Amino acid sequence: MDSAPSKRQKIDHSEPSSENVLQSTTTAGLSKHRIFVLEAEELLDEAALDYAATFPSADALLGDIKTTIESIEPHEPLPLVEAALRLEKKHRVQVPFPEPRPPKDCNYKAAFAKLTQFNVVGSYVSKTMVRTQKDHAIDMIFVVPAELLQEKDFLDLRYFYKRAYVLAVVAASLKKKYGADADLSFEHLNGNPLCPILSLRPKDKETQDLQNYRIRIIPCSPDGFFPKSKLHLGACLTRKADEKESAPPAKPTPFYNSTLVAEGCSLAYLKTIRQIEKKCASFKDACILGRIWLQQRGFGGAVSHGGFGHFEWALVLALLLKGGGDGRGDAVLSTSLKSTQLFKAVVQFLSVTNFAEKPYVLGKGDLEAPSDSGPVIYDADRQLNIAFKMSPWSAAALHQQAKWTRSLLNDGTVDQFSPTFILKTDFPLYSFDLVARLNHYGSFDQAAEVDSRGKVWQFGSKVYRILKRALQDKELGERARLIHIRTPESSPWPLDERPKKKKSAGVEIGILFNPENMARTVDRGPTAGPNAEEREECARFRGFWGGRAELRRFEGDTIRETVIWNSKSPVELCEEIMRYILNLHLRIGVMDEDMTFYGGAIQDLLPLEPTDSAVFNATKKAFADFEKDIRELEDLPLHVRRLAPICPELRHASVKLPPLGPNKSAPRPLDTVVSFEASGKWPESLAAIQRTKVAFLLMIGSLLEKSKEGKVRTLVGLEDAKCEIQNLAFLDVLYESGPSFRLRIHSDLEETLLERQVKDKTQEQHVRTRATALLATLRRFHTHLPFHSQTISTFVTRFPALSPTIRLLKQWFNGHKLSYHFTDDFVELVALNVFFSPYPWDAPSSANTGFFRALLFLSRWDWRSEPLVLDTSGDMSQVDRAAIETRMEAWRKIDPMMNHTVLFVATSHDTTGLAYTSSEGFVKPSKVVAARMTALAKSACQVVREEGVELEPRRLFVPTLKDYDIILHLNSKAAKGTQKTYPSNGSEGVDGERERHSKFKNLDERTGKELLPLAQHPAEVLLDHLSAAYSGPLVFFRGALEDMTIGAIWNPQVQKKKFRVNLPASYKPGAVASAQESDDDDEERAVDVDLNKEGILAEIARIGGDVIERIEVKGF
Amino acid sequence: MAPCPPTIGGFSVLPVTIPPLPSFPRSVLHYLYVRRNAPKIPAVDDSRRLFLTNVPVDATEVHLRIVFATLVGVGRFESVTFEEDRRESRTDAQPAQAARLSAHSKKRKRENEEAERAAEEAAACLPSTWTRPLRKSGSTAVVMLADEKSVDQVLKAIAKVHKSKKYPSWGDVDKFGAGKAPPPLGSNWLKAHNRLSYPDKDTLQTSIDAFSVLFAKKEQEAAEIAKRMRNEPDEDGFVTVTRGGRNAPASKNEAEEAKRKMIEKDEKKKEELTDFYRFQMREKKKEEQAELLKQFEEDRKKVWAMREKRGKFVPKS
């Protein structure tokens, strides 16, 4: 906008007036936002937990436990080890000491004093639990009395030993009391190996079944007992006994220190949260929303779940409401905000603060943290790093998830609610392009463990550091957007045992590709130069990459350190790099079973080579040549306006690669359409236009043959036309060098005339219906498909993973014999949709994730009431979308049984919603088939969910033949034979198989003759005819054209009919009815007839002849 | 197999045995339903015709000829017209003008002229791409027999067949006689279709030329009729408006274009006056608010509807 005075704008109407501005505010996303709020309210209602039902008699039990614990007799100090032994002997309770266990000769004393401070904390008091939680627990804390502790106990796990002892004493007394009525066990608080707690799962009084909830009894330290100044993140508080004072300063132990601080903060946080709950009415709801959001993304308070759970969410939110961020201390959020607003605010906070890289301070204060302390969200008031349980990878993942959700919440065009709260996103197959499992911890230095997080975690962090350097190096170009590591969960153990040493359950690694860089085969490192800096860089590079690093000369005479990889596809490349680098640094992967990679198996189903796109490009190049040849024809009466491809092969979307170069089988020309400049010469009659087109094709053919003599062969083929006014012919152009194209002509006048017929109310109904179907076909061929081809071609280059995703998805449709009922373009749009609205993730970066998410979309798409809208040109307004929805509603009202409109798919080019799901006047697919697609996708997703990474992808592609009533087994030899036809010589060749075929090549008449192209694939012709003949009684299912089994099911609605003329199929007189009817003299009465199934099958056998080998019928 | 009634709803039932095939090795019965032809618009030869329904999909004239030969002996069967053949009409191939005017034209054509025209039209047809068509399952056909007596005989023979259980056989190759067998189905049929889809270029060109000649002729005829009918009142005293008069109506295209332009002009005029007065702005604002409220209600309804479909609001596990 220019700086024109506002007065002038009012007069000038061409300016974007107030109207436009208002429109944009009322429409853009507002409606979606409103719905989001309403839906969130519903969710809160739905998720609310019935506390009385979930925790029957919990309050009484809690009181009971409290009195039990209070009544424990104190005892005088004893040496720790001796006290532990006594406890074990007397009560059969093992003290759950953390590792390393106290040495035998330690001289700490353990005592017990009366416990006085109890509290129930956590979401039970706040009432912020939800129904879908994995398990429900009441947290009860007691404070370890100060008189049992010494100030120096913060050193060397001493506090934790004493804490464990106190807990064991409590456990012993509770065991005595509840041994029979409850299940008691130890577990680690949030998987923190320093903090064992007691978990008590009560039994139902009557049935003796275990209840669905448990009570967690958690010891904690008195608030402020330990000097916080000594517990800062940089301090090292665990020293080895053998360490000398003179040794270099030990590594800091941030995790240990933070655990100690957290031990003392339980009550303080309880207070803080209670205060905020009072001040801010929607705080609880926002916490519930946060809990659900985290839960759906697999985050939780436990170390193995990322260390950011509901409690951390509540704390961050509370501190944002109270203190504010960035060390300034002003409140960031207002307490009067609504729950959804608070939720969005926290998501926003998590998406913009990258606290994994740079510590973030909440409240007024300052923080000096060592650089490698991991993710830090520092609560300045209590001097605690809230994120201390988080790992660098979980912080990165949380950051990424928050970013995705934020972009989702900013996108006003899609359903914001389901991806945010309903969809479960932490299935590795949906989230990661490559999943690997390390079964072996490699060479591991026990002594290196200082920070008490446990061996597995330590190992994971090492793997992470190496992979991050290898795959996320900014200078080389990031190969991966996200590296995720999942460590096994810690599990509870019985009171009389020691915590189980984990069997090597393995570490799971998930990699999310950066599709632009993952396919890179040459890594260019630093330039090798003479100066010291460069030399150092090179040494570092060599140090990391080891023997694979070599010097290479590149263009511009630069010499660089380089790593060359041998694999081709992104998945294989990633695997190669991981195997190499982990082996190099950690000695993992020496044995094959050390490392398992998942996700590669899908490659076997459909070999997706990186060279595929070169083949597609070559085909496109051939098309460009063809276009040039056509445009260069001189004697054409009209100028070519546009020559456009309309087949999947020319948009990187066919399952099979288009053949390159000369090949032996019959050519299958690629479909293209041509339109000419507007002309008044077309005759004003549809039939005449069609004949003119044939003449035109003949002319183009002969001109082409003349101009490219010897290099090209042209043939005019006839369509299998039903009437005179539809397209009658096409021109096949066969190049000697291999490629072949099929040309159809578009005439503007034809469209106008048909439109006129459709609108003309004086015409007979059947004429108008026919015109409508013809017009739809015409528009499909000459408007929608060219646009669609262009769109897909554009997005294939924008999203490298789109082409393989489409092809995999088509393969799936083929596998389940659905392809016959779906148009190619529909499947392509479904795949594209996964890239357009990828929420809750972002656009897939490999075929695997793209495919799985496309299946997920199909399984969830409620096509009965929702249209699929793709904004392919990027300028679809809210009004357009609303119009599409209205149109769909209107269709559903007109056609509630969905006989004529089923799937509703609209794009920027076609807002009618039917162009991609109908063909030749028929709806594709019908309701039955669409329902089958959804059912199949649902069960596929179920399998994906259940099997996880262990999934054998082949399972998803295997059809279940038992669903079909009839299976036609084709004879593959005869079917292949039908694809080879030769031009007949003269008139006698009508049924020319009587031509002489000799065994000897030189006597065979066919030698030297060229194969005819396929006007239509014979398999298609056969099935089309069967479908047309039996459109009433049978629905046929077939996958790819090469599919040798065709399934079919009987239509249950036409099994029995009243006799009349023009029945929908072949019927036989009903057996029972006939007996009665013969007595009846009344001949006019309607008589029942049954479907003559055997008769129909015999007919099919006759039609198929030698092509059908066997007809398998269910039930015979 | 249950006994089959000799008649059903006015039709005689004619069971036909279908010989087994290797891919479906069972011998089954197909049922043809036959009655005298009695169309709504009676024709001269109706008494010689039989109406058949539930014709097998692969039926050809030869097939039916054999069936009738087994029933009443050779020589009674004359011809058959299938459902698809009867429906075909060629009115599409006329120029638009001719189609419109032919309704008004009362001139009777002489017979030889008609025959000539039929031959021309046949020449203008594109060659068929099928050696043998398939019928739709359950379709009908009309059989012409030699004389009226044959019709009675056939119906009698059908009644007899029920007693003797000697049903005629379908597609009995032996009876076809040399060279008379219909072209085979199966792979040969598919291959022949592909071959026929690519006719000889010269044949194609000839047919197209024939069509253009015919089309031009028709156009000319139409023009003549139009000329004749101009200024010639019909029996009710009306004069048909035809193209080419002194004040000839513009072509449809031009008329449409003009109309579009007029509408555009009107719209532009209207647009200039919106947001001109204050009250317009005020009203607009009110409308917008009402719209917002309405949308809110709609959204709420939507959410309610979603809740009806239980499970929408439960986070997946």
From TrEMBL, chain A:
Pfam families in UniProt: Nrap (PF03813), Nrap_D2 (PF17403), Nrap_D3 (PF17404), Nrap_D4 (PF17405), Nrap_D5 (PF17406), Nrap_D6 (PF17407)
Outline the extent of the Nrap protein domain: 138-278, 282-424, 429-586, 611-795, 799-959, 961-1111
Matching entries from InterPro entries are given as: NOL6/Upt22, Nrap_D1, Nrap_D2, Nrap_D3, Nrap_D4, Nrap_D5, Nrap_D6
State any GO BP term from the record: rRNA processing
Where it mainly occurs, coarsely classed, is nucleus
Which keywords describe this protein according to UniProt? Nucleus, Ribonucleoprotein, Ribosome biogenesis, RNA-binding, rRNA processing
TM stretches of this protein: none
Where are the stretches annotated Disordered?
1-25, 977-996
| Residue ranges, compositional bias (Polar residues) | 978-987
Keyword match Membrane: no
Statement: the UniProt record of this protein carries the keyword Glycosyltransferase: no
Q: Where does the UniProt annotation locate this protein? A: Nucleus, Nucleolus
Give GO MF terms, alphabetically: RNA binding
Q: Which GO terms describe its cellular component?
A: CURI complex; small-subunit processome; UTP-C complex
User: What is the similarity comment for this entry?
Assistant: Belongs to the NRAP family.
Checking PANTHER family in the record gives: NUCLEOLAR PROTEIN 6, NUCLEOLAR RNA-ASSOCIATED PROTEIN
Indicate what this protein is called per its UniProt record.
Answer: U3 small nucleolar RNA-associated protein 22
TrEMBL record, chain B:
Q: Where is the composition biased (Basic and acidic residues)?
A: 110-120, 253-264
Q: Which residues cross the membrane?
A: none
InterPro entries linked to this entry = RRM_Rrp7, RRP7, RRP7_C
Q: Which residues form the Rrp7 RRM-like N-terminal domain?
A: 8-172
Question: Would you kindly state one Gene Ontology biological process term found in this protein's UniProt entry?
Answer: ribosomal small subunit assembly
| Gene Ontology annotations for the cellular component aspect, listed alphabetically | CURI complex; UTP-C complex
Q: Which residues form the Ribosomal RNA-processing protein 7 C-terminal domain?
A: 196-315
Q: Where is this region: Disordered?
A: 83-120, 235-264
> Its family?
Belongs to the RRP7 family.
Q: What is this protein called?
A: Ribosomal RNA-processing protein 7-domain-containing protein
